[in-house]
Design brief:
Layout: E1 2-9, E2 18-22, E3 28-32, H1 39-54, E4 60-65, E5 71-76
Antiparallel strand pairs: 1-2, 1-5, 2-3, 4-5
Amino acid sequence: MQAIQVKYLGPTNTRGARLKAWAASGVSIIEHRDYSLDASRQAQELCERYVKKMNWHYSTMHFGTLPNEDWVGLIAG
């Protein structure tokens, strides 16, 4: 089982809002916030792209929200 955490990064003076995904592997990916999508849906799609980038294979993904309002995708073989 792997957990992928996704955090909202607010805008700065030089960058717009972004989402960052990472896992215990230490690899992270960041993408700009797409306001045409619901934030939760974009976070879930980012989890799926992260899994593809890491070349992980899974049968199910469960997606939810952590107490600190980050999102998490749990994948199981």
